[in-house]
Amino acid sequence: MRLLLLLASLVPLLAAQGCYQGCPQTASEFCGNRNCGQVTEENACGEVQTIDCGRCFGPDICGGGGVPNVCSFCKTPAVSRDCTGGWCKIPAGCFRMGTDQSPCTSDVIASPMPFTTFGQETMHEVALTHSFQIMDAEATQAAFSDLMDYRPARNEGQAQAFMPDNPVEYVSWHEAAAYANALSTKEGREPCYACSGEDAKVTCEVRERYAGSAIYDCPGYRLPTDAEWEYAFRGGKSTDFYTGQDLDAAGCHCHHDVEAKACTCDAKSDSPVPCDTFGFYGALNDTAWWEQNSGGIHHPVRTTKTPNPWGLYDVAGNVFEWCHDWSETTMASAKATDPAGQPSGTFKVVRSFAFNWGEIRFFRASTRRLETPDHVCHSVGFRLVRTLTSGPLQEGS
Questions:
Q1: What crossing angle do the helices spanning 173-186 and 141-148 adopt, rounded to 10°?
Q2: Cβ–Cβ contacts within 10 Å for residue 91, how many?
Q3: Within 151-259, where are the H helices?
Q4: In sequence order, what E strands does the chain have?
């Protein structure tokens, strides 16, 4: 009897194996690797068919190349501020990381800046399948010294003494990771890094269980991945700056002249024009501490300057920010889901730019600076993130 029931149940299944064996098509034939959620469209037989194609698993269904995007997860979500207690929530979503269009790219990569390496900015689609919270401002000197019980080393003659509300600097990548661990421990969360040594002599690495994309599963605090940082910076925009401005070829050569105490755009010509010719300049002055308006010093966080659409302060300017990833000069160009950088390398990614930099082209969303993890500088700090939800999301999540 059971055998007869089993055979009876197979009849409609065999009759639904696609156009050549009868319609409608099965889910695997109809949905392919691009559709998710409930889809209504013509099947291979030319008949309109509705079927539930299931979950969205990343950038393979982010559209492009004539393939329709039917998964709402793979759109940049509506941007709104959801911030409390110094943290802002960023929802999962897809975005285009890097750039293939900016005329500034070649100038950045070929920059003669001493002791500084810049990475390529090849545009590619990235899916972040988790929501996360991120500090709305850079970690302050007071927060660091209170938690770590020491103050990072400063160069003699540094213009600024200890300033509790200003961003912490002179911290290596290792010290930033150790701070993340200390905050995790304080709140009873599992740390993401394995560290040894103490104070400025600490060395850290990612715990083996959280290597690669598994870092997104760590319940503790950590540094943002390169992708998370750019996604958070952009605030839903695909332009060079999160206020909607792009730099053209002339704008790429805008810079603040310290001696002249003015910003000009020479465009490699004999006819320089004022920086305020370009909308990007005004946006930068309104949102960032940089050489034009900083007075040569960093400033207290969450003051004066306007936050980005997510509610984040100083993602451009004030101090540079360490990211989680190992990375080399060549950026991945293929679609990626929850990228976390190379398994090992020479450089860690550094994002944002600093109060003492005057070249506008470096403040674009896609610009990536690379430094060795033991690097310390009076203009390099950090902010932390923590994963809130993880894993493939249902359509519309």
A1: 70
A2: 20
A3: 173-186, 226-234
A4: 38-42, 48-52, 83-84, 87-90, 93-97, 117-119, 124-128, 132-135, 193-196, 203-206, 254-257, 262-265, 273-274, 320-327, 336-337, 347-351, 368-371, 380-381, 385-387
Contact by Cβ (8 Å): 340, 325: yes
Distance of alpha carbon 166 from its chain centroid, rounded? Answer: 23
Q: What is the pLDDT of residues 228-244, one digit of tens each?
A: 999 999 999 999 999 88
340-348 contacts: CB < 8 A, separation 24 or more? 340/212, 340/213, 340/215, 340/216, 340/225, 341/225, 341/226, 343/211, 343/212, 346/372, 347/117, 347/371, 347/372, 348/173, 348/322, 348/323, 348/324, 348/372, 348/373
Which amino acid type is present at position 195?
Answer: C
**What is the number of other CB atoms lying within 10 angstroms of the CB of residue 119?**
22
Distance CA 315, CA 297 (A): 16
- Within 10 angstroms of residue 331's Cβ, the number of other Cβ atoms is 19
Domain boundaries, the chain: 82-387
d(CA 339, CA 323): 13
Phi/psi of residue 325, nearest 5 degrees: -75, 145
Residues 6+ apart with CB under 8 A from 291: 256, 258, 355, 356, 357, 358
- Least confident range from 132-141, 258-267, 376-385: namely 258-267
Six-digit token pair at 334?
């293929």
Instruction: Record the pTM.
Output: 0.82
pLDDT 10s digits, 257-307: 887 788 888 756 566 788 887 788 888 889 999 998 999 899 999 987 899
Model confidence at 397: pLDDT above 70: no
- CATH class of the structural domain 82-387: alpha beta
